[in-house]
């Protein structure tokens, strides 16, 4: 009888835990009635039943309005943490540690919507002291750091509409202070809808204010200002407003300086390239980026980007190569061609496509750059590319580049073989 019960109760542990030994029996009341797995964050619903938080939240999110066990209607969707049961589960895990069971961590409780609304009201109240408002903002920022769910709760309380006036009040009512910086730091952790982005992008004084923050003595303030510029530029559909942001005095210069920050502050590199890419999507802003020194910043930091950011950086390089001044600036940097050649087939399909596109623009503009590319080994790289599983766009760019470089190939180059042809290739 006991053997049958053990077999029935034996299940896999959740998350990263290994399967339980067959001699271990999880107590029935430690299991979630929905997932049948050990509960990590037990919560009790209004019917008195206890479930694992993630399971009951998924149940409700799919449209269910009844208790899974009792089938009684859930008149209140409040989830009350069952701390007693959670501690019992943790004690059981510790007692069975020798059997390979890890103690579940104490979960952080999600933000209470009522508390969030109270803190936002406190932060927005001009009748409250600066200390009180700052304390509320810091508590909200701490909650936002804890989890995606908390950020969703804060956003659902219309936090951006509360925070935007606080950030930009410094432009007219007071000098930028901790209240400005703390509200800005929280704001960039939240998504903004288009109307909120437009409320910034359409007002030159707000754009000018953000540009001034890009020269602040604090690296965190500078990076947060750049983050808001990126969010706003990416979130507005108005080309005119995006041009306004990109061409505002100090914006491109400030973002370029952020890219040059020490690697000890990696967020600067990530935010800087996102902002630069968002602004360079508009052709009318690219000349400003080149004038601000973006070309040197991109090439000098190209090896330091992580995969996703490297793709974004290479896409920006290709965009800047499409204007004459950008092409000329990249041509003057001795590392441009060798780095782009080296990147082909090394990072990702997208990175390869952007690198090939940038090389195509550069080599189309200069015979010397064609010779430099060949000397750097681009022919072999391109031949491998057209035979790879890379994107069709990347292959088309590679074929066009091979055709362009044919006159620059050495006499004994493998690329002179008649086995490869690249005529009649469309660039689109």
Q: What's the layout of helices and strands?
A:
Blueprint: H1 2-9, E1 42-44, E2 50-52, H2 53-61, E3 80-81, H3 83-95, H4 113-124, H5 130-146, H6 148-156, H7 159-169, H8 178-187, H9 194-201, H10 204-213, H11 219-235, H12 239-247, H13 251-259, H14 266-280, H15 283-291, H16 294-301, H17 307-320, H18 324-332, H19 336-343, H20 349-365, H21 367-375, H22 378-386, H23 392-405
Antiparallel strand pairs: 1-2, 1-3
Helix pairs in contact: 4-5, 4-7, 5-6, 5-8, 7-8, 8-11, 9-11, 10-11, 11-13, 11-14, 12-15, 13-14, 13-16, 14-17, 17-20, 19-20, 20-21, 20-23, 22-23
Keywords: Transferase, Ubl conjugation pathway
Pathway: Protein modification; protein ubiquitination
EC number: 2.3.2.27
Question: Can you give me a brief rundown of this structure?
Answer:
With 428 residues, this protein is mainly alpha-helical.
How would you describe this protein?
Residues 1-22 and 412-428 have low confidence and may be disordered. The longest helix has 17 residues, at 130-146. This protein has four domains: 2-99, Herpes Virus-1 (2-Layer Sandwich), CATH 3.30.40; 108-191; 219-332, Leucine-rich Repeat Variant (Alpha Horseshoe); 334-428. It is built from 23 helices and three strands. Helix content is 59%, strand content 2%. It starts with a helix and ends in a 23-residue tail after the last helix. It is mainly alpha-helical and 428 residues long. It comes from Nelumbo nucifera (Sacred lotus). Keywords: Transferase, Ubl conjugation pathway. GO terms for molecular function: ubiquitin protein ligase activity. Its EC number is 2.3.2.27.
């Amino acid at each position: 009888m006991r053997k049958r019960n053990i077999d029935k109760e034996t299940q896999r542990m959740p998350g990263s835990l290994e399967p339980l030994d067959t001699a271990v029996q999880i107590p029935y009341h430690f299991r979630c009635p929905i997932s049948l797995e050990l509960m990590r964050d037990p919560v009790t619903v209004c019917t008195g039943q206890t479930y694992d938080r993630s399971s009951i939240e998924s149940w409700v999110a799919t449209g269910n309005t009844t208790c899974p066990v009792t089938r009684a209607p859930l008149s209140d969707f409040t989830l009350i943490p069952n701390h007693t049961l959670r501690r019992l589960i943790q004690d059981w895990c510790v007692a069975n540690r020798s059997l390979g069971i890890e103690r579940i961590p104490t979960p952080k409780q999600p933000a209470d919507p009522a508390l969030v609304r109270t803190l936002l009201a406190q932060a927005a109240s001009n009748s409250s002291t600066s200390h009180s408002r700052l304390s509320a903002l810091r508590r909200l920022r701490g909650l936002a750091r804890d989890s995606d769910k908390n950020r969703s709760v804060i956003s659902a309380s219309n936090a951006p509409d509360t925070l935007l006036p606080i950030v930009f009040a410094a432009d007219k009512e007071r000098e930028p202070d901790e209240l400005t910086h703390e509200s800005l730091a929280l704001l960039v952790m939240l998504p903004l809808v288009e109307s909120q982005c437009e409320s910034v992008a359409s007002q030159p004084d707000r754009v000018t204010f953000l540009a001034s923050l890009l020269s602040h003595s604090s690296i965190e303030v500078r990076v947060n200002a750049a983050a808001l510029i990126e969010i706003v530029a990416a979130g507005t559909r108005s080309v005119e407003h995006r041009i306004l942001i990109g061409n505002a005095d100090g914006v491109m210069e400030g973002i370029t300086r952020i890219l040059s920050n020490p690697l000890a502050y990696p967020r600067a590199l990530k935010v800087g390239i996102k902002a630069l890419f968002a602004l360079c999507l508009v052709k009318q802003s690219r000349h400003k980026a080149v004038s601000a020194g973006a070309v040197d910043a991109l090439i000098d930091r190209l090896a330091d980007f992580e995969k996703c950011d490297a793709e974004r950086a290479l896409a920006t390089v290709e965009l800047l190569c499409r204007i004459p001044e950008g092409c000329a600036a990249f041509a003057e940097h001795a590392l441009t061609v060798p780095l782009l050649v080296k990147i082909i087939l090394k990072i990702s399909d997208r990175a390869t496509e952007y690198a090939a596109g940038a090389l195509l623009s550069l080599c189309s503009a200069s015979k010397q750059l064609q010779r430099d590319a060949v000397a750097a080994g681009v022919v072999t790289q391109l031949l491998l590319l057209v035979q790879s599983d890379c994107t069709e766009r990347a292959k088309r760019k590679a074929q066009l580049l091979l055709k362009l470089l044919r006159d620059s190939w050495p006499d004994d180059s493998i690329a002179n073989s008649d086995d490869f042809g690249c005529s009649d290739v469309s660039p689109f």
